[in-house]
Amino acid sequence: MISYIVQSPVGPLKITVEDGFVTGLSFHRENSLDSQWASEASLSSAAQDAAFPAAEDAHPNQQGGNPSQKRKDFNILQQAIKELDAYFTGQQRKFTVPVRLSGTPFQQKVWQAMRGIDHGETKTYRELAQAAGSPNAARAVGNACAANPVAIIVPCHRVLAQNGLGGFGGGLDTKRWLLNLEGIHPNQTYPPKRQARHSTWPDPNKTMQE
């Protein structure tokens, strides 16, 4: 297993890869125990670094194991970072990096339905419950969204409450920023309607301060 932390427009992201799959993508808290292993590089520079990732920047969980599998995990990690960089710079709308999600059968259905929400689109918790085959389980769907282990790639930020943003593990400012990045402005209508993307992407500093 490899864990790696990169800087992004929405703050540090911790990416975990195991057995050739992304198994975790979370909003890293600076005061967590493994913050000392965070990379000083930005997301874009890490994506472009041919020597990525440097051994001293990687989480100690990468040490040991099968060298061939370790290299495969490094390649998947680099692919994830490149795709995230392309997403944040408006060059990519759909992620292709392999993902493996561990959860209950119900959570798996919700996450699978969530992955069907396209870039620039949203669903309410109730609509996602219907898509997952459990139309009366909107609250349980909200809990499954909160348990999503691979944020952004599995787009829980595209799931909203009927009359509001709903929750988000990365914080509501981050959720709003990601929606704005995709051309959605949730303060205007609920659920928000799809809007044309701006020619330039939102300034994260400006957006996060609003």
What does this structure look like?
With 210 residues, the chain is α+β, with helices and mostly antiparallel strands. Helix content is 33%, strand content 10%. The strands form 2 sheets. It has a 3-stranded antiparallel β-sheet, with helices on one face. α4 (125-131) packs across α5 (138-146).
> Sheet bearing the most strands, described?
3 strands, antiparallel
Overall pLDDT, averaged? 80
**Could you spell the SSE succession in H and E letters?**
EEEHHHEHHEHH
Strand-residue proportion: 5-15%
| Strand line-up across the major sheet | 1-2-3
Helix % is: 25-40%
* Beta strand count: 5
Please mark out the parts with pLDDT under 50 across 5 or more consecutive residues, or reply none: 32-40, 50-60, 189-210
| Straight-line distance between termini | 38 Å
Given the structure, what is the number of helices? 7
Structural class: alpha+beta
Report the radius of gyration as a whole number of Å.
17 Å
Shape: globular
Topology:
Blueprint lengths: L1 E5 L6 E6 L2 E7 L15 H6 L18 H22 L16 H10 L8 E2 H7 L6 H9 L12 E2 L11 H10 L22 H6 L1
Keywords:
single chain, 210 residues, alpha+beta, 3-stranded antiparallel β-sheet, two-stranded parallel sheet, 33% helix
Concise structural overview:
This protein is of the alpha+beta class and 210 residues long.
